Amino acid sequence: MVRIGQTEVAYELRRSAAVSERRITVTPGHVEVLALTTDDDAEIDAFLNRKRQWLFNTLRELETTTAKRAVVPRFMTGSKIPFRGRNARLTVRHHDGAHVEIDYRNGFLVDLPSWVRADDQGGIVATEIKLWLKRRVRRDVMEIAATYRKRFDLKPRTIRVTDMKTGWGACGPTGSILINWTLVFAPKAVLEYVVVHELAHLKVRSHGPEFWAYLATLLPGYERPKGWLDTHQGSLDAGFLAAGT
């Protein structure tokens, strides 16, 4: 318990050998203090004393923001973010660090520093999540492509993950492949299907029977992820992009 004026604030203390500095993270109704494994009670008390004003301001801002919101908006705690075919819960926290940090652990965790104003939170969280999603899908695409390059000697000239106004992927005449980044909202098996589909075009350019037979040798059972994409392609990215990112 830490006292701020006439108010006592309960907090959860967690120690970690993996961190090099102490941290406070605040969400509505919960305060977590992350301490070093070597910290004694006096060091933790001194740290909390130094952060007393920051903690007070952050708690007051959260209370004000929560009171103004009749419903949970997009990109705030409680929102649902589409990711790999399901909706993942978003938790927005406030911490005493200098940078916006984002992680995924059975849901999205976004830590905002104190310089982020309440009115700007939604936009900043949306931007950070979009960047994280793009990095994640690029990593996934490169891993999938590397697997099939090794197994089947399929070597595209280049492979890029990008915004595509139409289509989910493309294989150019020189062997350059494009993949639509919004496939991050589909199950990973669907992303794999699209990547392998475009890799197959390195050997067979058309969409005739020869192509589908060859694709089946690369990815047996491709019909299932293809069917999922055919069914959901009209609304795959709507839940995220319609929120104003």
TrEMBL record:
YgjP-like metallopeptidase domain span: 23-232
Top-level taxon: Bacteria
InterPro entries: UTP_pyrophosphatase-like, YgjP-like_metallopeptidase
Gene3D superfamilies (alphabetical): Metalloproteases ('zincins'), catalytic domain
PANTHER family cross-referenced by the UniProt entry: UNCHARACTERIZED PROTEIN YGJP, UTP PYROPHOSPHATASE
Name by which UniProt lists this protein: YgjP-like metallopeptidase domain-containing protein
